[in-house]
């Protein structure tokens, strides 16, 4: 796949980047080089390769998934116009 000058101008327009006419050929070459590299990557055999999140195998630290009220319910609703039992009271908007 290759990019022509019109496509370079369109990409620049979509990205809201001002590109001078003299820069178009250079950008065209840069974009074509990037696309050629991506095409090379598609030739790599990845059968049986597991997805990785890091180059070193490690387990993410996890916290306990515990439901709590944050121990500050009064602070949370302090500026609300109306509250009841630590809940915000709002006017009914759906009939």
TrEMBL record:
Keyword Transferase applies: yes
Example GO biological process: translation
UniProt keyword Nucleotide-binding, yes or no: yes
Reactions performed catalytically: L-aspartyl-tRNA(Asn) + L-glutamine + ATP + H2O = L-asparaginyl-tRNA(Asn) + L-glutamate + ADP + phosphate + 2 H(+); L-glutamyl-tRNA(Gln) + L-glutamine + ATP + H2O = L-glutaminyl-tRNA(Gln) + L-glutamate + ADP + phosphate + H(+)
EC number assigned by the record: 6.3.5.-
Highest taxon of the lineage: Bacteria
SUPFAM superfamilies: Glu-tRNAGln amidotransferase C subunit
GO molecular function per UniProt: asparaginyl-tRNA synthase (glutamine-hydrolyzing) activity; ATP binding; glutaminyl-tRNA synthase (glutamine-hydrolyzing) activity; transferase activity
Pfam families: GatC
Protein family membership: Belongs to the GatC family.
PANTHER family linked to this entry: GLUTAMYL-TRNA(GLN) AMIDOTRANSFERASE SUBUNIT C, MITOCHONDRIAL
Functional note: Allows the formation of correctly charged Asn-tRNA(Asn) or Gln-tRNA(Gln) through the transamidation of misacylated Asp-tRNA(Asn) or Glu-tRNA(Gln) in organisms which lack either or both of asparaginyl-tRNA or glutaminyl-tRNA synthetases. The reaction takes place in the presence of glutamine and ATP through an activated phospho-Asp-tRNA(Asn) or phospho-Glu-tRNA(Gln).
Subunit text: Heterotrimer of A, B and C subunits.
Name this polypeptide is given: Aspartyl/glutamyl-tRNA(Asn/Gln) amidotransferase subunit C
Organism annotation: Bradyrhizobium icense
């Amino acid at each position: 796949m290759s990019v022509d000058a019109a496509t370079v101008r369109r990409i620049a327009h979509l990205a809201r980047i001002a590109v001078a006419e003299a820069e178009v050929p250079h950008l065209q070459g840069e974009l074509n080089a990037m696309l050629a590299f991506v095409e090379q990557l598609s030739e790599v055999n990845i059968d049986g390769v597991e997805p990785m999140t890091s180059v070193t195998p490690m387990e993410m630290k996890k916290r306990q998934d515990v439901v709590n009220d944050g121990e500050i319910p009064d602070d949370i609703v302090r500026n609300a116009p109306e509250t009841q039992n630590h809940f915000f009271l709002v006017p009914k908007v759906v009939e």
